[in-house]
Design a protein that fits this description.
mainly beta, OB fold (Dihydrolipoamide Acetyltransferase, E2P), 4-stranded antiparallel β-sheet, about 10% helix
């Protein structure tokens, strides 16, 4: 439905009709017949997800409190503890001071310490440990 004509400067000066330019159409990607994905194998079994999360500190999807949550300042991977096998920086019920490190966000192999924006008590964990977060993803709810 569309025709594009490209001419050189010399062709415009000579005022001769140029032959129509060849039209190239993009082809769909070839089918991945060599790499079939069996429909009988799910990518992640849904039954194992709830059993792997601790029942006492299950992350919420939306803050139930009226207080604004502490949000992620960057995209990366959220970690509650300074290293594997170490205790978390904070847990529900902990009192924190403004400027206290509450978690780490790994971005491009750099560990960025995230500090509390205000003093108060951690009432909710809103992000899951080891999972990716984006900018403005709620991490914690801190009630003054």
């Amino acid at each position: 439905d569309c025709e594009i004509v490209i001419r050189k400067k010399e062709a415009l000066q000579q005022q001769q009709p140029a032959p129509p330019a060849p039209v190239y159409h993009s082809m769909p990607p070839p089918p991945t017949a060599g790499f079939p994905m069996p429909p009988s194998q799910p990518v992640a079994p849904p039954a194992s997800t709830p059993s792997s999360a601790p029942a006492t500190e299950k992350p919420a999807t939306a803050p139930a409190s009226s207080d604004p949550p502490l949000k992620s300042p960057m995209a990366g991977t959220f970690y509650r503890s300074p290293g594997p096998g170490e205790p978390p920086f904070v847990k529900v019920g902990d009192k924190v001071q403004k400027g206290q490190v509450v978690c780490i966000i790994e971005a491009m192999k750099l560990m960025n310490e995230i500090e509390a924006e205000k003093s108060g008590t951690i009432t909710e964990l809103l992000a899951e440990d080891g999972k990716p977060v984006s900018v403005d993803t709620p991490l914690f709810t801190i009630v003054p």
